[in-house]
Automatic annotation (TrEMBL):
GO MF annotation terms: endonuclease activity
Name of this protein: Putative intron-encoded DNA endonuclease 1
Pfam families to which the protein is assigned, alphabetical: LAGLIDADG_1
Record carries keyword Transmembrane helix: no
Superkingdom of origin: Eukaryota
Residue ranges of domain Homing endonuclease LAGLIDADG in the record: 49-128
Family annotation (InterPro entries): Homing_endonucl, LAGLIDADG_dom
Keywords: Endonuclease, Hydrolase, Nuclease
Biological classification of the source: Eukaryota, Fungi, Dikarya, Ascomycota, Saccharomycotina
UniProt keyword Amino-acid biosynthesis present: no
Amino acid sequence: MNLLSNNLLRYLTESEKLLVLSKPILYNDLINKEYTKYYNNNLIDLDYIIGLFEGNGNINVYLTKNTTNSLRIKMYFNISQDKSILEEIQQYFNCGNIYNINNIYRYDVKSIMDIKNKIILKLINYDIELNIKLYK
């Protein structure tokens, strides 16, 4: 079985004997050596990001009262994944930071304006479950 996505062909079975990323790699070489992952920045798209978000992401909303008893809202958007993929997501949205917490990489956006204007506006057109968690 092979997948073709944006001119990138990936062979998924041993019988194909070849995996094509940015350059051909023989299957036997692939299983006997460790390779750097090859990514083309043009390949990441919103469909891919949404898949990652649905599996490993969420939006957290925190409501707290400050000293004057007025309501304060904090919002966080995050996805956990490989660092190189998170760097591409960070470039795609042009906001947020990447953190390494106990060897787990997480892309976080903490600015409510960035979450609203750069992320939710793009996600809202898709039929997805946003995984929004409300904390009081």
